[in-house]
């Protein structure tokens, strides 16, 4: 045993040899105070960062050294078992507490990071502990599915294992927030977020993934995160079918709604007359939306709507008569298509404008 091991042994095996000597003489078990003392020593050893395997080995070495030659083996071994078990219990208790504290600190950091609630300078300092350098630009990908997920769940563990297996040497952060999977990566590492999107899509059975644009500095993460969330919300309202959305590809939509009142006026003016149709504006609005999504191809639009081309043509003529705008006319088509996008964004006609 080295000098350092003897020092550690003396510190964390305090009183152990005396207990064995008394047990060998009386055959008694350890009392409550002795067990409590063993647990306390185990907690201290864990807090000081010593390995449990080495400490158990020291207990066994001390047992051999202090073993009374004429002692009853059963009594001594029972005492050893009690002592080591109590020591290990205290050690594990300290470890669990440390893990809980680390988890709490990590969750607090993630909340501050994604909501921008902390001092940015302090946030950057804390980020180093969790593998991020916020002086760089970062981008955030968010995966949403019908089921909420947390970090301890099987889906989260599966995605995290895949990320660490592929990019274990990268400075990335994987977590969950509000039931969604979240990945933060340096802004110049598109391969990380693309791989995350692929894994999250597979693990969530088709959940949609949105990727925000890279933004620099401590506030860049929350900016990118909000872009990803907005993209998911936009995809829901616009019925976008793509499994992976890039906020950079959707910038036209915030531009269109920047003047919300002007967009509402356009929707009321261009599409308001559709309310006069039997069944309300909804069916004809869906017809226009599908027609534009199909590239104004009547046959494809009819197929998507499960209509005949003749029935679709009748609906388009009905729209022309009600609105005065012809979907086949290039200028009218632009106005109608912009109004249809605005109706989706503003949830019209379900919501009054």
From TrEMBL:
<dbReference type="InterPro" id="IPR042070">
    <property type="entry name" value="PucR_C-HTH_sf"/>
</dbReference>
<protein>
    <submittedName>
        <fullName>PucR family transcriptional regulator</fullName>
    </submittedName>
</protein>
<comment type="similarity">
    <text>Belongs to the CdaR family.</text>
</comment>
<dbReference type="InterPro" id="IPR051448">
    <property type="entry name" value="CdaR-like_regulators"/>
</dbReference>
<dbReference type="InterPro" id="IPR025736">
    <property type="entry name" value="PucR_C-HTH_dom"/>
</dbReference>
<dbReference type="Pfam" id="PF13556">
    <property type="entry name" value="HTH_30"/>
</dbReference>
<feature type="domain" description="PucR C-terminal helix-turn-helix">
    <location>
        <begin position="284"/>
        <end position="340"/>
    </location>
</feature>
<dbReference type="InterPro" id="IPR041522">
    <property type="entry name" value="CdaR_GGDEF"/>
</dbReference>
<feature type="domain" description="CdaR GGDEF-like">
    <location>
        <begin position="116"/>
        <end position="234"/>
    </location>
</feature>
<dbReference type="Pfam" id="PF17853">
    <property type="entry name" value="GGDEF_2"/>
</dbReference>
